[in-house]
Amino acid sequence: MKLAKRVEQVTPSLTLAIDAKAKALKADGVDICSFSAGEPDFATPAHIVEAAKQALDAGKTRYGAAAGEPKLREAIAQKLQNDNGLCYGAENVIVTNGGKHSLFNLMLAIIDAGDEVIIPAPYWVSYPEMVKLAGGTPVIVPTDEKSQFKITPAQLQQAITPKTKLFIINSPSNPTGMVYTSAELAALAEVVVSNDLLVVSDEIYEKLVYDGTQHVSIGTCSPEIYERTLVSSGFAKAYSMTGWRVGWLAGPVEIIRAATRIQGHSTSNVCTFAQWGAIAALESSQACVETMRVAFAERRQAMFDRINAIPGLSCAKPDGAFYLFPSIAKTGMTSLEFCDALLEEQQVALIPGIAFGADDCIRLSYATDMDTINRGMERLDKFVRSRSGSTEAPRL
Ligand SMILES: *Cc1c(COP(=O)(O)O)cnc(C)c1O
Fold this sequence. Notes:
Elements: H1 5-9, H2 14-27, E1 33-34, H3 46-57, H4 70-84, E2 93-96, H5 98-110, E3 116-121, H6 126-133, E4 137-142, H7 153-159, E5 164-170, H8 182-194, E6 198-202, H9 223-226, E7 229-234, E8 247-250, H10 253-266, H11 272-283, H12 287-308, E9 323-324, H13 335-346, E10 348-349, E11 351-352, E12 362-365, H14 370-387
Parallel strand pairs: 1-10, 3-4, 3-5, 5-6, 6-7
Antiparallel strand pairs: 2-8, 7-8, 9-12, 11-12
Helix pairs in contact: 3-11, 4-11, 5-6, 5-10, 12-14
């Protein structure tokens, strides 16, 4: 069978390979501590589930408008005004099948063959693949721990060519957990504006910030950047609704209309009754979001303390999301070697940094219970010590 060339261009997900191995071991009865999850471990809050059930009973089971239920588009626009200071109406919003699909729609709507898209590394695994699927060229700009894994305005400027169309920013970041300050965003916004680019801001983790950190949307930095900004987000992470597949893209009407045209011929509307659950999520009390955030904050501190006590690992403290991204440079192993051996020898599953374009790091998710964190960190400590050889004294 001759498959389309675009399939060859797309890299199979490394994270899924590790996950499959961990699941196979678990099925064999092995006690696995997994930190590979990219989703909250909480149940969807009951009032949201209830709203979707009521929608089913009320017959909200038919096709709807491709761009989304009008009431949900309105509620999302309102949220973007209230929480983020972004002046949007319902016409600036399309409801999509998750945040992932909102980005995919955007790529299809604006990328032509040969267009370049600037992606700071470490990046979320799907960004470069989506750009390629749309016929564009991902331009990866590496960052490191010294700059808190944040791209600088000079680095952004340097990566721009006449073919550059779009810059992708993700704050809080998956996998690093880093959060850009408003000053950092303003400086990047200036580069975007002076080169007449578009920027898409993936804000799916905006509600998960810690120690008083403020989430800022780059679109608020100036009137000029507002006109060039797309916001991509969804309900998955803040409301523990990963399986519901509801997200959104917001921005200039022309682009939202283009995305709607594409969606109209691909997926049509997002599952109607799931959208009614999402309406309840936005219109009810936000206490559930805070409850989950507080639980994440506690786990983050526990895992951070344990990791930094392991000689050979070092980790910057992330301000958001639910990941730690420690460096394994001192172990001398590649991230895949590290994760493979760790799974074999200590039955701990995590994601190699190479999946995010950073081979000297590993990603641990703390979206899991405290007992797993305690047991898993014990094992990780044992593993790193067993590998650290005799050349280096423990850094205690
Ligand atoms: C989880 C995630 C998304 C979107 O997830 P959906 O389930 O499609 O809403 C987008 N960006 C990043 C960085 C993520 O981690």
